[in-house]
From TrEMBL:
Keyword Mitochondrion attached: no
Protein name: Penicillin-insensitive murein endopeptidase
Source superkingdom: Bacteria
Protease among keywords: yes
Protein keywords: Hydrolase, Metal-binding, Metalloprotease, Periplasm, Protease, Signal, Zinc
Organism encoding this protein: Solirubrobacter phytolaccae
One GO biological process term: proteolysis
Lineage: Bacteria, Bacillati, Actinomycetota, Thermoleophilia, Solirubrobacterales
Signal peptide segment: 1-20
Amino acid sequence: MRYLVLILGALLAAGAVAFAQEPTPAPAPTPTPVATETPVPAGTPTFEEPVTEPSVPPDFAAIQWRQSQSKGSWARKGRLVRGVMLPELGEDFFTWDPIFNRIPNREWRRYGTDRLIRTVLTVIHQFRMEHDSAQRVGIMDLSRTHGGKFGREYGGLGHASHQNGLDIDILYPRKDGTEARPTKPSQVDRVLAQDLVDRFVAAGAIKVFVGPKLKLKGPKNVVVPLIYHDDHLHVRVR
């Protein structure tokens, strides 16, 4: 009997030790909050978006480009070397013969430096993109094929300048939208005309001669009122 009691006591002691050594379950891990991105409103620009480049004037494709040289003065002993010919018509412009008063202007009156042609076509393309209902821009005389004098012997009043490929005459836009030369100041759309003047100044023109009756504005000594310019503005680049 004593022996049985000893065995039972040993068994109970072993159970108590085993219970004491049983591992306590580890607490469940606390879930880590998942960061969520704040939604970006549609149309909001991001730094990864490509920068939109200005569109290339479509009329560039029709031109035989070459590097030109302007020699001498615009009004004295001027010459044009490897001049670029402006086509008679384009998507953004038409040419106007100031002697015969018709479209197009004759080829030998449509030469300028590559810089002049690029500047003019870029300005009028941007102008037309802004005013998509406006008529094409009219262009009259540039320089002769190889530059040089462009006086009365070449028709009309002639030009004191236009000798070295850096000058161009641009018709003012008409109120009625007709692609033709304005015959009096009242036919000129002065809002569109002022916008053209502003754009040529911004493009780096060193002179813009305008008709005194039109009251067009611009930087002093750059935008200059001058007689015989009531139907067109005269742009000169470097």
